[in-house]
Write a structure and sequence with these properties.
Elements (H helix, E strand, L loop, with lengths): L11 E9 L7 H16 L1 H7 L2 E6 L2 E7 L3 H9 L3 E2 L2 E2 L1 E8 L2 H12 L13 E4 L2 E9 L2 E6 L7 E5 L7
Antiparallel strand pairs: 1-3, 1-6, 2-3, 4-5, 7-8, 8-9, 9-10
Helix pairs in contact: 1-2, 1-3
């Protein structure tokens, strides 16, 4: 079977979405079903068949999604309605739209290489807040995602570096 020439191929657009909070364990299949359900409840079966949304990849706290050209607006609106995926509270924040996956991967690399001024916190480092010990699971600039250390009643907090108590 021969490859279709570019003029006969279906035009697609790729969306880069940041998954918040960072560190939530997601499967691409579960995210696909969540997106499909959100789009169907918002736009209906006919529009979802026209949009043809799909999850291409999950990379470093980001999701690369695909839709047909001309339906990016409807797809991003449907993504903004997502609040949970498999018992995890999440939000998808659209960062960019592009005609190629490679340009979105380059954008992930640029955002991931940002080094904030001051002290950089390492992952799995311990810190204290409100006299309790927490473990750093994500550090993005001056924002920190931490999980309380312990077995029972662990809590996930989203802090800034100014909130932490220095030892």
């Amino acid at each position: 079977m021969s490859v279709r020439p570019p003029t006969l191929r279906e035009k697609r657009r790729y969306l880069l979405a940041r998954i918040e909070p960072c560190g939530v364990p997601l499967e691409a299949k579960d995210l696909y079903y969540t997106i499909h359900e959100a789009a169907t409840s918002l736009w209906g079966d006919m529009m979802v068949a026209t949009m043809h949304p799909a999850v291409i990849a999950l990379e470093e706290g980001y999701a690369i999604l695909r839709c047909r050209r001309g339906t990016e607006r409807e797809c991003t609106i449907a993504l903004s309605t997502i609040t949970t995926c498999r018992d995890h509270q999440i939000a998808l924040r659209i960062i960019a739209a592009s005609g190629t996956i490679e340009s979105l991967r380059d954008r992930i690399g640029v955002m991931g290489s940002y080094v904030p001024q001051g002290r950089v916190r390492a992952l799995n480092e311990e810190c204290t807040f409100d006299t309790r010990t927490f473990e750093v699971v994500h550090c993005d600039g001056h924002k920190l995602d931490v999980i309380e250390k312990g077995f029972k009643n662990t809590h996930r907090l989203f802090l800034t570096t100014e909130d932490l108590e220095e030892k």
